[in-house]
Amino acid sequence: MEYPTKVLLFFLQFTILTLHIQALDQTNSSKPQNSTTDPYKLLHIIQNPDGSLTRIKDYYPTVPPNTSSSISFSKDVPLNRDKNTWIRLYLPNNSKHVNLPIIIYAHGGGFILLSTATPNFDSFLSNTARQLGVLVVSVEYRLAPEHRLPAAYNDVLEALFWVKGKKDEWVKKYGDVSKCIIMGESAGGNIAYIVGLKASILTRQLNPLVIKGLVLIQPFFGGVTRTRSELKLPDSAGLPLVITDLMWNLSLPLGANRNHPYCNPVIGAGSSKLEKVKKLGWRVAIAGCDGDRLYDKQVEVFKLLERRGVDVVGNFSKGDYHGVFVTETTKALLFFEFMRSVFYSYLA
Ligand SMILES: *[C@@H]1O[C@H](CO)[C@@H](O)[C@H](O)[C@H]1NC(C)=O
Ligand SMILES: *[C@@H]1O[C@H](CO)[C@@H](O)[C@H](O)[C@H]1NC(C)=O
Ligand SMILES: *[C@@H]1O[C@H](CO)[C@@H](O)[C@H](O)[C@H]1NC(C)=O
Ligand SMILES: *[C@@H]1O[C@H](CO)[C@@H](O)[C@H](O)[C@H]1NC(C)=O
Ligand SMILES: *[C@@H]1O[C@H](CO)[C@@H](O)[C@H](O)[C@H]1NC(C)=O
Ligand SMILES: *[C@@H]1O[C@H](CO)[C@@H](O)[C@H](O)[C@H]1NC(C)=O
Question: What is the CATH number of domain 5-342?
């Protein structure tokens, strides 16, 4: 079932994931997975003979940074020219504030799609900066399959050192590198978690940058064994298994399956670095909702962190869908409230 392009573009103003919800609503969701459903078609991507992807541009609009706004200003700066990575910074429009906490952010898109400049991410981050009184450092990391994991993790880690170096005027003038939070949504939530683990053993090298916590918004995790929410939710809930399977196939290191710790953090009772995260006293916040196919794995990760003695706070609500916090303003406001309650001593 094809929608007119105009309608598709309209949906893309919100999120690629709600697009799927709309498109897949046309199928009978109580039927088992339709194995002939082509995830490449659903995602508007084409695999090239060399393994790279063509992401059909009409379906993946971006917006420029915003220099005049009553909410936040943004600008793009290079991170690593050799890798073609860059950063979009967001500064709230109430410039008398200095020493702002810094949120280092990774966007969603299953490791293979989208950008910090995707309209709904851009607008979410502009609001994040303003609502929480923070400087946002959003990383345009390398995508798979051209650059499989750990490329995205390494890019976000590199961004932490970039912040530490205070090479940028906004970071130097308005930021407080001793109050950093690593945050991400969907695949970005996964990135925030893994980069947090990597950074937990680099605290001396990162000094004077200090990480206060990790925020995982509907993080994208999985595993070989399907969870209940993966199996029971209809395709109309978005993120059908053909899509998440493809995303893992294209992003995990070659030869790895979905029990790789990049995908399934609960395997083997979790990373040994969680001991370090616990000792450092970082707070980990996880936001999810049970209308999201990824919900059960998110709860598993929450319980793992609890068991391992990490200071973890969950906000798991009923209903909704994957992508809701970066799509709906009212849900974003609830999420910001949750953030304030978790990081009450740092956030506005
Ligand atoms: C959807 O599929 C189920 C099971 O195959 C069937 O009972 C139901 O009538 C179908 N609904 C629609 C709207 O086609
Ligand atoms: C699966 O989806 C394709 C494409 O939408 C459709 O042509 C086909 O009839 C579907 N098959 C089943 C068994 O539902
Ligand atoms: C900042 O916000 C104020 C009012 O909210 C507005 O008047 C002003 O034009 C904004 N500044 C810029 C540079 O956009
Ligand atoms: C810039 O921010 C204003 C809100 O302050 C918004 O209306 C406008 O769409 C933004 N422009 C871009 C290019 O994002
Ligand atoms: C993912 O890879 C597995 C194993 O190679 C394969 O069986 C499966 O069809 C692939 N799934 C997708 C959606 O590409
Ligand atoms: C999630 O956080 C919001 C905002 O603080 C709060 O209103 C809501 O009750 C929380 N929900 C749960 C299930 O913890």
Answer: 3.40.50.1820
